[in-house]
Amino acid sequence: MSHSLNEIEAMSKRAARGSGLSWGLAEEAAKGTRWLSAFNLPGAALLAQLLEMNDRLPLVDVSPVSLRATFWRAPSGRLSPLIAGASLSDCAVQLMERGSITMEHLCVPLLAVPFMGGAALRLQNPVAVAWDGLKLTTDGHHLSLEGDTEKLTINLAERVTFYAPAEMIGHRKPVIRANVSPEDWDRLAIFAHRTFAPATEESRLRGAGAGLNDND
Description:
This is DUF3726 domain-containing protein. By secondary structure, the chain is an alpha+beta fold. Helix content is 41%, strand content 18%.
């Protein structure tokens, strides 16, 4: 089913919030999902996949133990691409100074790629990432892919290395609408529904029109 990028971003934001993420991180997740969708990549499906994997897990368990190290690890043994990706964007200068940052056991690594765009814009230099024979590079506005594209949608990458500066070799053109399967849309909707306030007796009466009064 075709959706506008605005629709995808709005649904992703509410779903991410419904999964327990802060509004700020939910906004970042939604922007990232939109960014991937603009390059005709399955951002919405992968976000749904990640939210299901990490549902109700304490965020500290899937966050980097330390941002000072060259290798980032999580207490639980697997990193969230949203939290690690946001941290990477904040550490753009350190990335350039160190040359590379490696994340170990990164869940759904493609969801971390949009945060590279923010880092690239700050550095005014392209940033690249590689895992399992796949390489992606972005300058913040464009995206290039090289290598084994079958690895784009893996659930977990043992080692993911980000590095800067990098060189762009060709790029994909962004689109204004993207396809999301009804099944994946429904998966996001389940999380989004958690953000709705539960009905009270008063709200039910107000929503029922006449309430308990029968005027017929």
